[in-house]
Structure prediction request, 596 residues.
Amino acid sequence: MTDLDTRPSAGEVRQPTVDARPSAGKAFRAILWRDIYVTGKEFWVFLAQVALQPLFMLFVFAKVLNAGGYVTDDYAHLLLPGIVALTAFLTALQTVSFPLIMEFSFTREIEDRLLAPLPTYLVAVEKLLLAVIRALASAVIMFPIGALVLGSAPWHTDGIPLLIAGLVLGSWVGAGIGLTLGTMVPPSKISVIFAVILTPLMFTGATQYPWQSLDSMRWFQVVTALNPLTYLSEAVRAAVVPDVPHIAPWICILVLLASGAASTAVGVRGFMRRAIN
Amino acid sequence: MTAAVEVRDLVKRYPKRDVNAVDGLSFTVEPGEIFGLLGPNGAGKSTTIGVLTTRVKATGGEARVAGVDVIRDSVAARKLFAVVPQQTNLDRSLTPRQNLAFHGAYHGLSRTDRFAKAAALLDEFGLADQADVKVDWYSGGMAQRLMIARAMMHEPKVLFLDEPTTGLDPQSRLFMWERVRDLRSRGVTVVLTTHDMDEAAEMADRVGIVDHGKLLALDTPEGLTRSLAGHAVLDLSVTPGDGDDPDKLVAALTDVAGVERGEAVAGGPIRLYLNTDPDTVLAPVIAVLSGRSATLTNVHMGAASLEDVFIDLTGRGLR
Prediction:
């Protein structure tokens, strides 16, 4: 065996051989690596989770309805960016919320990470970072899948910086909302999240329609303006299909920044309350 | 030498409660000691351990582990202790070996170090053959062993064990006791909470009994049992004579020199707590009994157990 066999005389406490230097950076990387490793190990599950629902949505709304003559070809190119936005947002939200609800209650799996030598709030920050990484991966997967379903995907090289900025910030907002839900909702209420929070978020986020097309439905336009997902959808559309009328990108970025900061602040507070009594 | 654990005037009040969960608790655990924290449910044991392991925020007082203030410097403190909870909290997305390796990584061990150490610990805890299966397949005893192995990955100075043998079969329990003694011989200080009085008497060098957030007694198990009304107990199975009842008998027997106090356990024997040797008391006791024409059917001489001390201090009321 290794150094475990060194037995000091009775009563003497052995000096730890563990590195005594500031440990937070190492611990943070190790915790992030754990989550990425587990994602990789269950990659097919991850793929099914993120890709299946948007795939069917694209197929039915853009392909099946188009075949029946209910929607035009242009609608498909308008829908894909919205679906990419929705996928990134929901992936980020679900990456944080559902595991956290379980880990804080039944499995208590998070305890080993809460006792790692790093400030507790960084464990929450790691969750947010992982969520953004997974959300970006899901967005990257969605473009080729969309192209495959639709036969072609809209593309606009000049819009790439805005696309990336929008997706990173939008995923961050989704992750922040996920953190808030994950620390607030008891496990018995998981199904309520779906019904009462997730579904309205999905359908008031301007993912299936451009925001400005709602001019004739003022009340619904106001409701969608309150959903941060709207600004992600608008930003992605502005980046990919700039010809479609959209909210000015700077407004989208600003609102996403503010929503990200607010949801993170609330989420981290909730996390700290759960982690330390 | 720096105390392994030092708790001074510790107070914890949870929001919306009108009593303190921990109410001015103070005790010190010496390095290399096995220290047992005993108390009924809700006595404040878990809250105390929670503060010491940085999971509960103290309302007042001080708490140090290996000289580090756990309240002000929780990150540094986490390198110095490890916790084995009562309920399993293993990472079920990982194999047993990965559970140990990732724990090592969280604590800054290099890749080579953590895999070497994980292999050694799996071997030591008898888990080498099932190191790469699903954690879900583990029995309670195996999960418990794996959690102790995980705790040892970062070589803590103090190990907190919460009810380590509750729900384990006798083999696992003996194995656990052996491992805990082994840890002590390596210089690891062990703080354990338990309801099992035999376990506390068997394992702990010193025992603190806590109730209502306060420390009621602190001594070696022998010292505690000695403090309880003398050295020994005398159990008498007696059938009272006509017109007599057990309570009156106890009253009469308590007058015998050497008997500190007595009690009639319902449906059971009369128990006398002695402050002298049982054999010097036996003859006068029999004289009292025959004087009241009671029939003596059985006599048992024994020492007071830790459980007697526990009940004496915390009462018989259900929590």
About this structure: Confidence is low (pLDDT under 50) at residues 1-20 of chain A. Residues 24-275 of chain A form one domain. The interface with chain B takes residues 1-2, 4, 7-8, 10-14, 16-20, 23-24, 26-27, 30-31, 33-34, 38, 41-42, 107-109, 111-120, 275-277 of chain A (CB under 8 Å).
